[in-house]
Design a protein that fits this description.
The structure holds two protein chains of two kinds. By secondary structure, chain A is an alpha+beta fold. Chain A has two domains: 231 residues, Rossmann fold, CATH 3.40.50.300; 107 residues, Nucleic acid-binding proteins (OB fold (Dihydrolipoamide Acetyltransferase, E2P)), CATH 2.40.50.140. In chain A, strands 6-7-8-3-9-10 form a six-stranded mixed sheet, with helices on both faces. In chain A, strands 13-12-11-14-20 form a five-stranded antiparallel sheet, with no helix packed on it. A five-stranded antiparallel sheet of chain A has the order 15-19-16-17-18, with no helix packed on it. In chain A, α2 packs across α3 and α2 packs parallel to α4. Chain A is globular. Chain B is built from twelve helices and two strands, in the order αββααααααααααα. Classes of the chains: A alpha+beta, B mainly alpha. At the A-B interface, β6 and α2 of A face α8 and α9 of B.
Chain lengths: 353, 287
């Protein structure tokens, strides 16, 4: 089964919100839509769910054109960022609601609700109302409703965004198991690169209402096709600066390093280099050899990692490394870059090496 | 350690004084009258509960109370569903929202006595727009000054015209507060329009509807000006509601004792029904 988008667009009062988008979303793994807020993830999901009209293009589900089919007639599920449950119904009735609409027999409804509740650890709460549950339980209830139903496609629109950190981790671990073997196309929208990497599968990077790149998540992370794709898929933000290719060397201000790999074959000229923060380290090593002298602005400690924002010739760069490091705010520090981690783009943002 | 003092009561005092002056003290006058007999000259004779007994046993009171309940029940049965239906069909966003809201608010802005006078003229068989139309174009005999049924149709229609907007506006406020996500979830469940209404809109409107019904109950149960101006309680006594009857006894016959007893009973009924309704409607929320 696959959900196929053929050049679909969304136009609201003459303004194009989603540019022509073509994707083939398959079953068996997570299809992640990754992009910042306002990139068009929710718009795309609403069109796939039939909640918003498709201005042009076609949408196929399992080989059948469903472009104009009403939402009610599609076999789909949607879990929102907000915890949406029927307020006056018990958890059991909430999970059962789409099954009741479908006219399923009571015995089968009981079985399915019980199964969904077991997986999501809701069994002790089946008789409660949503407002008597915690946020995490409410969202689990919404997820249970989505899996109890025999859906061809399941849309998860930032389902973990409103949960606190611990719950988010717990539920995220549960998600792949939840949909494994159900045969539904799972579409998961998120604004967090880390979430995309953890869920794996395939990722579509979205920016300004368009998909900039689509493919296996790990491959996109390693090989972004454009500077925009690299930017979307990096947290903290990816470092970038204009550079000159000159002979066998790359020149960035008064820093220079040897061009290696594909970069060695580049013609002389102006390029943009982008390098992820984890390739900028606080001290030299075998691989981190390019010295960058910058003034430390802000440091952050996030568990086992620490990041330092520093000023490099007027640009804000970030270093991310394991352990804690004795930075002094406002003073100069020499960071070391792993030149092997550099990505090269043309000045208009196309990947060249 | 928990510190406790009684200073908070000081903040309640001003409100207490205000309520005392605008409600309790004037009402004590009524209580005073309800247990005494007076023939003027500021002379009073103790009567105990005589007036209360007399009122509770009086056929006239029973009839007026019956008409009052009938009136209130009829307008609630019409105004609540109609108000919800209008609120459901109003746009949720766009340039027509303020237009609809102003149109809806208009009838409520007209003073009660003007509403009565308007409908009086409107329904007169010879010169009223509606009265003339019904009698001379549709050929149906309709004269609220002669026919009790016509009088009832007129006061009910008038109240529906005047106050349905209140239910509309409150229901509408409840409706627009429902996030789109709920409607989307229902669509994805495959729910019909009726299910959306029954399982999303109605539960979400419950609180505002409780207030709307409570307000409409109290207002309609105490209604005076509009039917007084429109029918004066006639023809005969057919539209003499409780308040009209009360004024007749108090100011028409100048029976201040029985009138005072009747107003206390009237007040107690209003209070009791409101309390009962509110308690039943909010019972679920407390559990």
């Amino acid at each position: 089964m696959a959900l196929v988008l053929n050049d679909i667009t969304k136009v609201v009062r003459g303004a194009t919100h989603i540019k022509p988008t073509s994707l083939t979303l398959e079953t068996g793994h997570f299809n992640v839509l990754l992009g910042e807020t306002g990139a068009g993830k929710t718009s795309l999901i609403k069109m796939m769910a039939g909640l918003d009209p498709i201005a042009s293009g076609t949408l196929e589900m399992d080989g059948i054109d469903v472009t104009g089919l009403s939402t009610q007639k599609r076999r789909i599920s949607l879990v929102h960022q907000f915890f949406v449950n029927y307020p006056h119904m018990t958890v059991f009735e909430n999970i059962a609601s789409p099954l009741r609409v479908a006219g399923m027999a009571q015995s089968e409804i009981d079985g399915r609700v019980q199964e969904a509740a077991d997986i999501l650890q809701l069994s002790p709460m089946l008789k409660r109302r949503p407002h008597e549950l915690s946020g995490g339980q409410q969202q689990r209830c919404a997820l249970a409703r989505a899996i109890a139903k025999d859906s061809q496609a399941v849309f998860l629109d930032e389902p973990l965004a409103n949960l606190d950190y611990k719950l988010r981790e717990e539920l995220r671990e549960l998600l792949p198991e939840l949909f494994a073997g159900r045969g539904a196309v799972v579409v998961y929208a998120t604004s967090e690169p880390e979430e995309a990497l953890l869920l794996g599968g395939e990722t579509a990077l979205m920016m300004d209402g368009a998909v900039t790149q689509f493919g296996a998540t790990a491959k996109i992370y390693r090989d972004p096709a454009s500077l925009n794709a690299a930017r979307v898929f990096s947290d903290p933000p990816i470092n970038h600066a204009p550079v000159q290719k000159s002979g066998t060397q790359i020149v960035m201000g008064d820093v220079r390093w040897d061009a290696a790999g594909d970069a060695a074959a580049l013609a002389d000229g102006t390029y943009t280099v982008a390098v992820r923060p984890n390739h900028i380290l606080p001290s030299a090593s075998d691989r981190a050899t390019v010295a960058l002298n910058g003034r430390v602005l802000v440091t952050e400690l996030s568990g086992s990692e620490s990041s330092a924002h520093f000023d490099l010739e007027g640009r804000g760069w970030v270093s991310l490394a394991h352990g804690t490091h004795p930075y002094r705010i406002g003073e100069n520090h020499t960071f070391y870059m792993e030149s092997g981690g550099c990505l090269y783009f043309t000045p208009d943002g196309h990947r060249v090496a | 350690m928990k510190t406790e003092n009684q200073k908070a009561w000081l903040f309640v005092l001003p409100v207490l004084a205000l309520v005392a002056f605008n409600a309790l003290i004037p009402m004590m006058t009524v209580v005073n009258y309800s247990v005494q007999e007076t023939f003027g000259n500021n002379q009073f004779f103790w009567e105990g509960l005589t007036w209360f007994e007399q009122i509770l046993r009086s056929e006239r009171f029973h009839a007026a109370l019956g008409r009052q309940f009938m009136f209130t029940a009829l307008i609630l049965v019409i105004e609540v569903p109609l108000g919800i239906a209008i609120a459901l069909s109003m746009p949720r966003s766009g340039p027509w929202v303020p237009v609809c809201l102003v149109l809806m608010a208009l009838p409520m802005l007209i003073p009660w006595n003007v509403v009565g006078a308007m409908w009086n003229i409107f329904t007169l068989p010879d010169i009223g727009l509606m009265g003339y139309f019904v009698n001379h174009v549709l050929g149906i005999t309709y004269d609220m000054t002669q026919n009790p049924f016509a009088a009832w149709v007129t006061i009910i229609t008038m109240d529906v015209w005047h106050w349905t907007s209140l239910v509309v506006l409150l229901s509408y406020a409840g409706l627009v507060s429902i996030p789109d996500a709920y409607y989307q979830a229902a669509k994805i469940d495959g729910a019909s329009n009726w299910s959306v209404f029954r399982y999303i809109q109605l539960p979400k409107m419950k609180n505002v509807l409780t207030i709307a019904i409570l307000l409409r109950f109290m207002d309609s149960f105490n209604i005076y000006t509009e039917p007084f101006v429109l029918t004066g309680g006639g023809p005969g006594n057919s539209t003499t509601l409780l308040s009209i009857d009360l004024v007749k006894i108090a100011l028409g016959q100048f029976d201040l004792g029985p009138a005072a007893a009747m107003s206390l009973i009237y007040f107690a009924i209003t209070l009791f029904v409101s309390w009962l309704f509110y308690t039943l409607m909010t019972k679920d929320d407390l559990n």
